[in-house]
User: What shape does this take?
Amino acid sequence: MNLRRLLRPLRSRFLFLIPIAPALLVACNKEDAQSTFGTSGPIADTQASLFIFIFWIAVVVFVLVEAALIYSIVKFRRRGDSDDSLPEQTHGNNKLEVIWTIIPVIILVVIAVPTIKIIYDQDGPPTDQGPVLEVNVRAHQWWWEIDYPGEDVVTSNEIHIPVGQWVNFTMHSDDVIHSFWVPKLAGKLDIVPGDVRQLAMKADEAGFFFGQCAEFCGEAHAKMRFRVKAEEPEEFQAWLDSMRRPPVELVSEDAIAGQTLFAANCSSCHATNTWQAPAARNERTRLAGLRTAFIGNIEDSAVIPAPNLTHFASRETLGAGLIELNSENLIKWIADPDDVKEGNRMKDLAAPYRNNSLSTNDVRQLAAYLLELKPIAADAVVAAVDLGGTAEERGEAVFAGSSGCSGCHSTGSATLVGPGLADLSSRSSDAEIHESITDPGAVIVEGFPDSVMPQIFESTLSSDELTDLIAYLKSL
Ligand code: HEC
Ligand code: HEC
Ligand SMILES: [Cu+2]
Assistant: This one.
């Protein structure tokens, strides 16, 4: 029969759909970590139902148009080789043309009404549903800076939020256009440099939601991920509080050695001390300073804004939400960050990778240190520490410890980020050294960038620590 001959080419041409179909259908699996169908909050729910609504309209249109098409093909097909007659021509039929103009207009209006309503409804958190949690997000190539304004809590790449409370994300970009997307919680929103973007969402259930930068932003774009951890409100509050407690005392010898290595090699970019309120408040300024230093010397900078690592061991992922945080992965990351995440800036810029100066043992000790960085228990009493030793010895401990001085300053004449501090006493008085530490912006050493040395030591160092530190610096 003619009809069968007519359909034959279709059969072979569309055979390729058979192996591909399951792959396409997997995209609709609600269980998938980044599925937009398995929603978990009012914003994503509404967006998904709008999608489904438009989808069914499209299905009806598709079925009617295809039915009309197939009907016409069959009804007006050429009947036999001798049939050269043309079917009746309807060109310029006013009635038909008016009908197929009006029907699409009606369809588009039906789609536009709920769409526009939802766009306006979802612009900002609702004002009548309790307090809104504010979270600041700053996108960097290729990681996320997170802070909770008014809470003195800073973190990176993992965003904790309370279940059932509206959250308003205020977003900036530090470099190029990024896009903030947590598929199960809300649609994506582009973050354009120089602009402030706001996105509200709410999680209806606890969970660890996948996020992903959804705008191509350079080499490691596909690996610029993050997580939103929605927790019951008490757990969320407990997390906020824990981020403001001091770290536990380091136990293993590896971790203690790792701390010194970290101060010397890593602390010029990464902060681990924002459990202290002044450091937390200063973190944005510190990162902005690193950014300025990087922009001033893109080819050869030794610093760039980097993820805050305070209480890093309480995180679950590594490399901006890329892989699970465990000892094996962390060692892999520190040994060669590029092997885990091609193109990332740490491998390009950090001195130890440029000079290839980290031994396998150093890497292991650094990992041991980072994996012990967690807050003390809520009910732990901080014992007063008697440091002992001479003022100079105590000052040396401050210099090499979590204040991060040794990450930026050598004690010889070599320039790291800041000047080498040998012979400091021959060029500065006690008062000048004191000022250099507590108010680094007051006098800038010639040839060095402004606002890179953190403006926090006035509040993070006790006056005893300052005195000891100055005694140590004078001894160099
Ligand atoms: C030049 C600045 C710089 C230095 C120095 C540096 N890093 Fe990084 N580090 C970065 C940047 C930038 C990232 C983010 C990379 C990415 O995900 O794209 C990063 C990421 C990390 C992460 C993953 C953080 C997360 O939230 O997933 C760890 C862990 C880390 N660095 C450890 C170290 C250690 C250990 C050292 C010292 C050996 C070090 N870094 C030295 C810039 C630096
Ligand atoms: C993130 C890098 C960084 C850290 C951390 C840092 N500094 Fe600095 N420091 C600099 C830079 C850059 C300069 C030069 C610009 C200026 O004068 O502010 C500087 C300048 C100084 C000077 C003046 C040096 C001179 O030659 O006159 C002193 C003293 C000093 N720092 C001490 C410290 C001490 C002590 C600490 C730790 C408590 C510390 N710095 C932490 C970057 C840093
Ligand atoms: Cu991005």
In short: The mean pLDDT is 88. Residues 268, 403-405, 407-409, 417-419, 424, 428, 433, 436-437, 440, 444-445, 448-449, 452-454, 457, 469 surround heme C (ligand 2) (CB under 6 Å). Residues 167 and 201 are 5 Å apart (CA to CA).
